[in-house]
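Entry 14. Two folds queued back to back today. First construct below, sequence then structure tokens.
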Amino acid sequence: MQTAQRKSLIMLRWMMVASLALPVALFLVAAYVSYGSTCEEADRDIRRSLDVVHEHAEKVFETIDRSLSEIDEIVRDLSDAEIKAREQALHGRLRQLSDTLPQMKSAWVFDVQGRPLVSSMIYPAPDMIFADRDYFSAHVTTNAGSFVGAALTPRPPDHGAAFFSVSRRRQSADGRFTGVIQASVLPDYFEHFYARIGRAPGSYFALRRFDGLVLARFPAAQRSAGPPPDDVPAAAADTEQLVTETSPIDGLERRVGYQRLAGFPVYVSAGLETATIRDRWLGTMGRHLIFGIPATALLVVFLAMARRRTERFYIEAARRLEAEDALRHGQRMEALGQLTGGVAHDFNNLLTVIRASADLLRRANLPEERRLRYIDAISDTVARASKLTSQLLAFARRQTLKPEVFDISRSVVTLRDMVKTLVGSRIEIVTSVPDEPCYVNADAGQFETALINMAVNARDAMAGQGQLVISVTAAPDLPTPAAPQERPPLGYVALAVQDTGIGIPQQQFSRIFEPFFTTKTIGQGTGLGLSQVFGFAKQSGGEIGVTSELGKGTTFTLYLPRVAPAEQPRGDAGGHAVPIGGRGMAVLVVEDNIDVGRSATEALAELGYLTTLVDNARDALEELIDGGSRFDVVFTDVVMPGMTGLELAEEIRRLELNIPIVLASGYSHVLAQQGTNGFELLRKPYSIEELSRVLHKVVPVPLHRAPPVAPSSEMR
């Protein structure tokens, strides 16, 4: 108890530590998961924004490209002189076209030297040469398609807004360069759009050429007359990706996605500052901490209070236990005294018969009839002692049962007279059995003992007067679903023993099957009867149920798995069968008790068996490995120091020595818990007749592999 108390206090202490460590660990895990979720959500936001700006930029550039195509269609068949001659009309058409497009600042048509022929902005076109501009020089030697130029500022005297160009080559029917058509696009148009959709903190948008040159950007950076510094590596221009980068323009780290515009050497980008993503994550975790910290603190306080209360409780409980321990000790001694007194009385009676018979057998000139009578008395007394030992083991629920197929109905009818004698003449016995047999596979002797114990318990409950009903019925299933085993194919057979006694209080139902528990006065019972019934039911794969009503009686119902009838019914061998001769069968006897081993080998030798005795399993394995063909069967005790008999049998099976094995045991907790694993079992004490029949059962035809040696036993 003190160990349990110390463990509980230690457990409470560890619970206090865990109440801190576990929330911290959970918080760290949640923080890790939350950070990943926040980053994934940020990536989704970036992709959505990227889709918006990509669609917007694509429509803007498609509109500009159509405008250039329209201008090209207007001036395609006109010479430079014709264009100059019609400059005023063409100026009006270009002006009308540029005014309808808010993103377009102006439209121009240049000749082969870079002089403007017509402009939507100025009439007449200025007499200047723009051949040094990138939007013109890119088309002189080759057809560059729709060329997107760098961000530029107007030349004096014009001081208008900055622009970047989208230009196209003019050429004759034979492919000669005849000039350039150019549209000036306002970066401010893109930046105002980015500002409208980028209201979330840390938003970022940009429009770039493939070489990384910035055309428009939000948040806007200070412009210079020349090309601004690259905002991303040029390698990213031809890909669609999501990367984390630090901008060389403002030095901020961002999570940025890129997407190319089809048909144009331009890509758009959208992103969020990593600081903004972290702020979102910290805000989420802060909301968790608002609730987590007070809850954890309360849990620690409650556990500390529970530990202090538990310590005080244990101190008080220890004082009570000191007083109760003396009472429990006296009760245990009383119960053990009742048990040992009854067992000692029965065993002394049995030993008296054995001792008297043995003394009489020593008398000289004893008549054969009396000698046989004394021998039978010893044999019968040994059988009764064996049965008493079996009952004691059943009380402890450790009996190794010997199941056989028998009809419960026939056993009840057979035991009716015995039960009537036990309960007395003032109790009316009513038996009810079905017409069809109800077969079970169980230990018949233990079943009879269980029935008698339930009948005696009913007699005591009725104070020797009333009605006792014993009925047998077929039950498809157990009345309670708490059975640990699977339902047998044929269901169950239910044996009900019903009395008209005083009944059992509901609060005692959980204790009635405990050993030594009894409501009877001292000297009237030890409380072992129902314990035997409970142990027998559990070991047989069944269950026992009880229903009771105070003042009206109690019904105990024993459920056993129902089986099909056996080919050979019970009772085909008598108790004093004639032993079977050995006829040269070689037996390896393994027994650590030398007296028991010698008595077995000598008895077998008298019947013509060839025996070899060893006192441990290791020596037996050496005998079998060195010359296993010399033996027809192994007869081994189960309980031995070192390797047990069951382990020896398993090792022989593993080595595939192909030799039958018979186990012998008076009691083994291993057999009681695990069974015999398919090996034949002979229970002690056994007779020579039983031993010879078991040996011939596992070796029905002697193989006569033993060498021609004398029948005397050898001892290793």
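Second construct, same run, same settings:
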Amino acid sequence: MTAASTTRRLTSDQGPNPSRPQAVPGKVSENVATPAAASSRPRPEPPWASAEVPRGLPADVSAEPAAGVSTATPLGAIALFSALMHERSSGDELAKQLRAELKRYSAGEKLPSSRVLVDRFRVSPVTVSRALAQLAAEGLVVTRPGAGAFKAAPRATAPVGDTSWQEVALSAETAGEPVPRAVDASGVLVTLAASPPGVIEFNGGYLHQALQPTAAMAAALARAGRRPGAWNRPPVDGLPELRDWFARGVGGGVTAAEVLVTNGGQSALATALRALAPPGAPVLVESPTYPGMLAIARAAGLRPVPVPVDRDGVRPELLEQAFKATGARLFVCQPLFQNPTGAVLAPERRPEVLRIARAAGAFVVEDDFVRRLVHADAGPLPRPLASEDPDGVVVHVCSLTKATSPSLRIGCLAARGPVLERLRAIQVVDQLFVPGPLQEATLELVGSPAWPRHLRTVAAELKHRRDLLAAGIAERLPRLSVDHIPSGGYHLWARLPDGTDEQRLVASALRAGVAVPPGRPYFAAEPPAPYLRLSFVAVAGAAEITEGVRRLATAWDEP
């Protein structure tokens, strides 16, 4: 990266050619020696010799680190990357071979020394160390400092017990218990389960790796990890700077003191529902709605009551009727690019929802989950409901996970009034605090120039994918009805013809090589029609969308 301060003299075949070796200027003297004869034994191949040059670099770039080249330079980084990749793969291969040989050893028998393994397998000491550590982690060998590695004793076989008593304990109702105790996570797992190789994922809920800001996140995490105090216990409410960043995003005078940093949006929703309604209470939800929220509500012992949604969001007249009929004190909604319909709450309905909830003495949990996944053609977005609510009716939930990576689990809760203390207490009891390095890395990420560039890139790509999927459905699946094309979010909500067997179509689609979720889990009660939710965010790109639609059409035609 930095040029040498002095110019190195070039080698030349000109000048004197003495017949005897001569000393050269300098502090280090070298003795003249005759080169040793070439050895017939092959030398171990250096780590960079067989390593693959990282993708995106010229194929003719040598990965061998030259003498004096720092790994801070591009060439040194290539060498380091290649060496690490080679060591990792070599360690895995050596562990595989040793694992097979261990079958011939008795428990407690000593393995060959590291030096013998280096000589026998022609690998580096680092590779041997890595392989033995892997076997030790698997419980196959035991390492003793200064003595070597030994085959571990076989694990004791656990006795076969009788766990049938748990069926009674887990299902037995206590006095006055109003709801079942079973927890159904199927609606959440459908977007988390890894599909078999070769299956196109129209069921994913997170950015494909190609869309994630991987380099920016890695750089942010590296910088954050070096900050003084980054690994100490953070404030239980979250880092003040991150809370202030979230507060500015909410707007409406919300301050950092009214924000809690959470472990992602799902955790924030769970905290909010536990804080705002006691077990057995009704909770009003949009219909259809996010299955993960329904799972949270039922796990907390709440009774979800559906309120229908159209292309302009929840219908206020039905929301008012539901409050009166149930006596509910809580309504959960997604006013922006609702999941799964993509609806945006209409401007004239926003004050109505707040007025109805305030009259009922109820809270509104606003799940603002995809504000940062807007499409390039969206135009100005409406502000969060919380920015228009000075009375503390709205508890705001948002997350950065959808716009970054499933592993960047950072979100926030924003609330005003006494409810904030209850939210804080439940979060502390459940989770203590959000890891400091993750919060520091988030601050680094959102404060970097890479952040707005990433959002612009994703906005353009999501629009392209949305249009491609909508056009493919119109051309190859005309019997699927997509009534609304949203300008944000990552999916289309498609109605099937009446009488279509959702589950059968989903199974046929999987056999054809495309994973799609049925619409049934998105309804708290009986669905009015069969649906599919088609996500375009987890696929690799345009080619997979086109092929996925083709496979879905094949499944549709399956008898």
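Quick look at the second one. The chain has 16 helices and 14 strands. Confidence is low (pLDDT under 50) at residues 1-21, 27-85.
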